[in-house]
Amino acid sequence: MENILEVKNLCKKYDNFELKNISFILPKGMIMGLIGENGAGKTTTIKAILDIIKKYKGDIKIFGLDNRKDDKKIKEDIGVVLDDMFFPEILTPNDIDNSMKGIYTNWDSEMFQNYLKKFSLVSNKQIKTFSKGMRKKLEIVTALSHHPKLLILDEPTAGLDPIARSEVIDIFQSFIENDDCSILLSSHITTDLERVADYITFINNGEILLSKTKDELLDKYGIVKCTEAEFKKIQRNDYIKYIKNKYEYEVLVENKNTFKLKYKIKVIDKITLDDLMFLMIKGEE
Amino acid sequence: MIGFIKKDIAMIKNNFKSLAILIIIYVVMGLFGEMDISFVLPFMAVMIMISTFSYDTYNKWDAYSVSLPNGRKNVVKSKYITTLLIILIVSIIITILSILIAYNKSKIVNYEEILLSMMGNIFATLLVLSLMYPTIYKFGIEKARIGIFIAVFGIVIIFGFISKFIDFSNFLSIFSFLENYWAITLLVVSIITVYISYIISLKIQLKKEF
Fold it and tell me: Could you report the predicted ipTM of this complex, rounded to two decimals?
């Protein structure tokens, strides 16, 4: 399988924060979700991929090309939604349409206008009159209207109501139906990622804690809820982390089926991405 | 690159209401006052372009533009080209207005004087903006605004102070051989200044982190 994006040993140092050896790959036709706390390094990673930040170490290849050397060629085929960064709000969607015709070789005005209608976005009103959700939708349709092969989306569903989120996610899913296209998206709304993502990459404190397929994570990992006495019987290398609640222990295990057989425990809860994030960050070892 | 210029022009167009009010004020001042309205050019051009920088900064357009094809370079290039276009348009409007106002007042129009004064103003505007743009790209619009204000006043005060003790006429007489070539000299100096300013701004933008 060909990779659309390869990040290898990405490092970036700030005074109070550091990205440490971030490496992951995004194959063609897949959606990768980046999860992690605020300030974990998701946006910094995305900014490095897009060369928005400088002076980072490591290799980033997009469509097999170096992200710095082949900048123009690569960016013709990328669509982006970035947190809080967009066209000036004094412009209208029609102005964006006009400008983008002169920016992207493949800009599809008809597609853009159709999306505007679909999302009920008025084409001749200034962006500053739009609600937060409407702005986000405009950013998304702008990212989609030049037939990109890779979408890089930083919190694309933030600020959207559940119905709009569902519409947007449907669009992402139909975008990915073309096998040549991929999506890298960061989100706090992990239920969205559970719906669409094929891969999950979990960043914490500038480091990758795990990068696996979503199915592997959600099918294999589990949470064991047990008493203190039961917890004490569990060997250290059979669990990843645990949290001691008022009445019970919650224990994160990597392979729930093996665990069930070994400890004769009947019920092991399925894990959600929220549970996983919470236990990985807040849990004890 | 055309797309980036279109974006800047659209911003100026959408902000036109507030600019139109200013033009009207200046015209009224020109019609009823004794002053020459060609001085309006530097103010107008600086104001129009600064407003585009302010909107860009507010919505982090410069960072977003890096994600567009050739965005880092084109965002700077288009700003300089738009600036030249705006200066051209404002100059034409002001020249026409100056002619109309002069005709309205005395029925005699000194075209040479109007054109010369316009050229001087275009030169001054280009100098100011050439100084401003690299400062804006380096320090951001807010800091640059204050910096330029201090710099301009500083220069005026320093020169005012020095000129009390030193007679500049001897110094200026060195350039007397250019007397008959003022127009071409201004043009050449302007082109060089704008070009150097563009190269500096571009270098800053190419290395900038957002």
Answer: 0.86
| Residue B127 near chain A (CB below 8 Å) | no
Q: Tell me: the pLDDT tens digits for B108-160?
A: 778 888 888 888 888 888 988 898 899 999 999 988 878 777 877 777 777 67
Give the A:B interface size as CB pairs under 8 Å: 101
CB contact under 8 A, B55 and A98: no
**pLDDT, tens digit, 9 for 90 and up, residues A214-268:** 999 998 999 998 888 888 888 888 889 999 988 888 999 988 888 888 887 777 8
pLDDT in tens, A170-200: 889 888 987 789 999 998 888 889 989 999 9
Query: Does B12 reach chain A within 8 Å, measured CB to CB?
Result: no
If one counts every other C-beta atom within 10 angstroms of the C-beta of residue A179, the result is 9
Q: Which of B105, B131, B120 is nearest to B193 (CA)?
A: B131
AA letter at B89 = I
C-alpha B17/C-alpha B7 separation (Å) is: 17
β-strand partners of A202? A35, A210
Contact B39, A137 (CB under 8 A): no
Q: What are the tens digits of pLDDT across the range A56-89? A: 999 999 999 999 999 999 999 999 999 889 999 9
Q: Catalogue all structural domains in chain A, each as residue range(s) with its CATH number.
A: 3-211 (3.40.50.300), 221-282 (no CATH)
Q: How far apart are CA B78 and CA B75, in angstroms?
A: 5
d(CA A216, CA A133) in angstroms, rounded, equals 33
Q: What single letter denotes the amino acid at residue B147?
A: G
Alpha-carbon gap: B70 to the closest alpha carbon of chain A (Å): 5
The secondary structure element, H or E, covering residue B59 is none
d(CA A223, CA A235): 15
Q: Among candidates A216, A207, A272, A280, which has minimal Cα distance to A42?
A: A207
- DSSP, res B108: -
